[in-house]
Amino acid sequence: MSAFLADFGLAKLAETGSRLTRTGQALGTPAYMSPEQARGEVSSLTPGTDVWSLGCVLYEMLGRRPPFEGDRTAAVVGKVLLEEAPLLSSLRGDMPREVERVVQVCLGKRARDRYPDALALRDDLDRALRGDRLRAGVPWSRGRKAVAAAISGVAAALAALALGPREERPAPAPVPAARSHAGVLADKARSLRQADPRQAARLLGEALAAEPSRADLRLERGLMLWAAGQGREAREEWTRIPAGAPEGASARLYRGLEATFRLDGNAALDDLAGLAPTSGREGPLARGAVAAARGLWADAREVLRDVPGWEAALLRGYVESLDSDGDCSRAVREYEAAFRAGIAFPWAYNSCGAARKSLGDLAGAIADLDRAVELDPSDPKALGNRGNAKRESGDLDGAVADLGRAIELDGSMAKWPYARGLARRALGDYLRAIADYDLAISLDPGYAMAFGSRGSAKLKRGDFAGARVDLDRAIELGLRSATAFGDRGNVRRALADLKGAIADFDRAIELDPGLAVAFNNRGLAKRDLGDLEGAVADFDQAIGRDPRCPLALANRGAVRGTRGDLAGEIADYETALDVAPEAWPHRRTVEAHLARARAALATRERGR
Description:
Blueprint: E1 3-4, E2 12-13, H1 35-38, H2 47-63, H3 73-82, H4 97-106, H5 118-130, H6 144-152, H7 155-163, H8 181-191, H9 197-210, H10 215-227, H11 231-239, H12 248-261, H13 265-272, H14 282-293, H15 297-304, H16 310-322, H17 328-341, H18 346-358, H19 362-375, H20 380-393, H21 396-409, H22 415-426, H23 430-443, H24 448-460, H25 464-476, H26 482-494, H27 498-511, H28 516-528, H29 532-545, H30 550-562, H31 566-579, H32 587-607
Antiparallel strand pairs: 1-2
């Protein structure tokens, strides 16, 4: 990012080209305008106005983002007028408090709350560099060296402003010559690179039509196409850039990165091999991408550790996402840094959403996946991942819709119909869930979990023979889940294979000793075999693991009644009804058993 410094009120970022310069209106770039400029109070401009704009520049140099951001000019101006900038310490953990305070004073909403002029600001910055106490009253803390270089970068501008009379404003720089039509289109495109990369790519295409020899515009258009999910078209643009052009190395780097992130390791190595030995900006990025494409995660981390820029942040996030031992929290932080500084790639939002989901942040995952789908509505991976996140968050109808669209876009992926089957099963739509599992198995005949889930759905529908076949097959294929063995135990019990049922419940408990329902069901099988003592022991185990398990309580009560313990039977029924939800399907049956037990106890008491 480069800045052309004129009057601070007219500061212009080369990558955005955003200006407000119409006569009689506020002057300046919205992100750098003071509140009085934003209100159009031309007569109220003072040296403090320049202090505000300089504070914005210093904030961006230290925090790597402007203090006020938005996708529209009105949104930025609204923040300038009404909101406080985020604390620099929230963006950088090594930010000294006194430097943060200097910037806060620069960004006071009222001019009288800021430094009176650039000289006063320079003096406080000098105090910060010397380690002296600031006039703002914040003592030196830590991290002075980490920001000294950034502060010295604005020293020349501070000195130039401070040397002039305080009551005079610096003379504005000469107005630059009018931009070409292609330049104007490129400026508009750059302002849309985050919000609407498709539109940005279209505008850059128009700019190239006007100036087809502009390799810089072609490089940018490739990035916009890539951000819009059009990787093949992006590669075509970059391939058209001559190798000897100043942008040639970057074009080759981006081709290699696109292939890396698309998991096409061979293409990535072809594009990056010649760049890896170089010492320029592209060299370390290419070396890191080559290591990542080869699955050499530790090597990639080492190469990329201190490499700046959004490309390196994306690569670091990618490494943490794909490495089985990767740090999902670090992946999210790297992706977020890339989003703030670079371009919004749909695949990166998809990957960031997956990392958040692994961390249990379903709301954050869905937000990232919403953005991925917004950027590329035809990406089945983003739709499928969002469908899974919605399913886990309880939005089952939304999950069915997203997964259905993913299946339409890519009918070769068995995991999407499987996931939709899970959502439909949770909705109680077992017939359609079975159809989804059928589709998943037709695409992947070795899909053990699909066989297990189809068996469970058939069990719910009372198809015990079909459920037994599917669950046997799932376990043969290597599915070792407590649910699968528990379901097969229920099937065996329904088919009167009580010893086989108990063996399956034993295995389920071995796999998950905390599974209360497995103890409950094994107790039922033992009861059916006449082992009442063993049944009560299992029901006790189930209640111990889940004191609010109404089925285990009711079942223990029934066995106690059979053994003549009417008081214990009544107590279990009462507790079961207390802890069960109001809509519990067994409520009326248990209430009837409770009434019968109470009557039997009363009769017994009268007979004594």
